[in-house]
């Protein structure tokens, strides 16, 4: 699989399995948190030993590992934070993601060989801030999610060529500016700026008028206004060409609390889309071999020239759009998701809110995870069951590097772990085997459409 530095597909991982899954399905880099000082405390996260093993695995496959140290530490945490950075520098990881400027300077001193990436929590919205952070040692800025495409172009045009621009492309969005919110802390005592957000912006609210106790009036969205909670999820899969053209060098998928299936499906989708971009723009051939050095479509300033902004920062004319095949456009709808939007990248189509629900749509279910394949009897898979599988059922295997493998389950041929025939698979978390003529990789997810779409609380 072709791993590259730019444009980079950056996938999330909440544990060591997620890290390896992301790499297996094409991630050029994986970001993950340790047991402390990350902005997601709900996942199990990784130990120092996990970082060592995960870094070795990633490097063997041409990928990199970034560690989140992006909380806003309080005085009592400073010394522990510095000690933790000192431990991380010897694990083989490639970069630290930081927010606090003091942590940035300490990390530069303690771990000089690690790249420093400035988190979206820092709220970088202009090239002045990006350049200042570059002077302080940062080699990447994760732009505030409130940026539109033109703002991305303007920043890219006016910062050093060797400074990366990382942009979110998929997943949940926070209603607070760049994720810096006090709502959870106020309502639940769980500090969102220390990775403990309870997501109260997803809760359903009503108004109670003080003279009418017990009467609840729903907060609704109309043509005249809306309430600012429960944002739609972001989905930029069909617009990656415009975002990369605008100067994004790293494309970040949100979801360190998500399952290995989500990581596999979304990493594979975005990696495939970027591969298509590289071929259609003439940077690589169909086999992934380099034809021309990668570059974006942004017009940069010359030495001594005044910064260009607005229309001056764009290229003359727009490149031809990179159209995606139908199977690829459908992938984001095969994981649990809220209504989708393109975030703030297109001011004419701004992100909106769900006013009637905070749950996820779930149109597809994971019904099994592949433990192995053998050519026995024309091909058989051994799987760990997750949901019901029966004859005649149409299933898909998520395959790294391409479209899913669709397969109709034949009648007969099911066996339990002891090799005894069974009529169907209907016992979750048990080992079974079944006919499958196509070799499928270990850990591939096996999914099937639900009989009726459901809402899933997460």
Short description, anyone?
This is U32 family peptidase. The chain is of the alpha/beta class and 458 residues long.
Radius of gyration from the CA trace? Answer: 23 Å
Count of helix runs:
10
List SSEs in N-to-C order.
EHEHEHEHEHEHEHEEEHEHHEEEEEEEE
The overall average pLDDT, rounded, is 88
Number of distinct beta strands: 19
Structural class: alpha/beta
What is the 3D form?
A: globular
Strand arrangement, largest sheet? 1-2-3-4-5-6-7-11
Q: Strand percentage, roughly?
A: 15-25%
Can you tell me the residue ranges where pLDDT is under 50 for at least 5 consecutive residues?
Answer: none
CATH third-tier fold name of the largest domain: TIM Barrel
Can you walk through the features of this model?
The protein has helices at 16-24, 48-60, 78-88, 101-110, 127-135, 149-157, 183-188, 240-245, 260-280, 326-330, and strands at residues 8-13, 29-33, 64-69, 95-98, 115-118, 140-142, 164-171, 206-208, 216-218, 233-235, 250-253, 340-341, 360-374, 380-385, 394-397, 405-408, 415-416, 431-435, 445-456. The chain has an 8-stranded parallel beta barrel with strand order 1-2-3-4-5-6-7-11, surrounded by 6 helices. Strands 16-15-19-13-14-18-17 form a 7-stranded antiparallel β-sheet, with no helix packed on it. The protein has 2 domains: 8-180 and 230-341, Aldolase class I (TIM Barrel); 360-456, Beta Barrel (Elongation Factor Tu (Ef-tu), domain 3). The chain has 10 helices and 19 strands. A hairpin with a 5-residue loop joins β13 (360-374) and β14 (380-385). It has 458 residues and is α/β, with parallel strands linked by helices. Helix content is 22%, strand content 22%. The longest helix has 21 residues, at 260-280.
